[in-house]
Specification:
Number of strands: 11
Strand order of the largest sheet: 2-1-3-4-11-10-9-6-7
Strand content: 25-35%
CATH architecture: 3-Layer(aba) Sandwich
Shape: globular
Helix content: 10-25%
Number of helices: 5
CATH topology: Rossmann fold
Order of helices and strands: EHEEHEHEEEEHEEEH
CATH class: Alpha Beta
Largest sheet: 9 strands, mixed
């Protein structure tokens, strides 16, 4: 059974076709979902890709959270559907209240485009299920507002509930606790700053993104069988 991944397109999104290409190369199918429609259709997983939704006006994700498609995403997530936000998509998920915390400007106010090491911090999400804790993945990052921030109480809960899914080996942007990705309580909604869709074949030096996207497709197939 092939999982169908819906890839949301906001005005300003620029990584949607990268996600489609990676998903299809890994054996899934993909469908673009326009932000102006709340209907997701018959999809088994949803990805909010990178870019600059609505030009990042006000702040990244602040306008995208009000797009009709987010009503569909909320309902899909509430029903247990796998939802992943990558970079700008992570920012949208935090603004929409589907994930805790916020993404703020990088330390030093510098735009970062680099391949970095991240460690698997928890297997309790649709992206990291079955992966060994401590495993290092080499993944690209490409952001100006990727520094993860949250209050002390939220950080304590994330740690206690093992909801930090990825941590930077060396913090590139000032994120609290070197956090590169977090999940919701159930592990079906995940936000990460690195771009696995740019590292699934090794063309940019690493194929490590494939293991994360393959897990997403597996979660989608499991949902389809329900």
């Amino acid at each position: 059974m092939t999982a169908t991944v819906g890839v949301v397109v906001f005005p300003g999104t620029n990584c949607e076709h990268d996600v489609v290409e990676a998903v299809e190369a890994l054996g899934g199918s993909a469908r673009l979902l326009w932000h102006g429609s709340a209907a997701l259709g018959d999809v088994d997983a949803v990805v909010l890709p990178g870019g600059f939704a609505h030009g990042d006006y006000l702040r990244p994700g602040a306008l995208a959270r009000f797009s009709p498609v987010m009503d569909g995403v909320r309902d899909f997530a509430a029903a247990g559907g796998p939802v992943v936000g990558i970079c700008n998509g992570f920012q949208v998920l935090t603004e929409a209240g589907l994930l805790p915390g916020a993404l703020q400007r990088n330390r030093g106010l510098a735009f970062i485009c680099a391949t970095v090491g991240v460690k698997v911090a928890s297997p309790g999400s649709v992206l990291t299920a079955g992966l060994e804790v401590g495993r290092t993945l080499r993944l690209p990052i490409n952001h100006f507002e990727g520094s993860y921030a949250c209050d002390a109480g939220t950080l304590a809960r994330l740690r206690a509930e093992e909801r930090v899914v990825l941590r930077y080996e060396e913090d590139p942007n000032g994120s609290v606790d070197r956090i590169a990705g977090v999940a919701n309580d159930e592990g079906n909604v995940v936000g990460i700053m690195p771009h696995p869709e740019r590292a699934y074949r090794g063309l940019l030096g690493s194929p490590d993104g494939a293991v994360l996207l393959a897990n997403l497709l597996r979660a989608g197939r499991l949902l389809a069988r329900r």
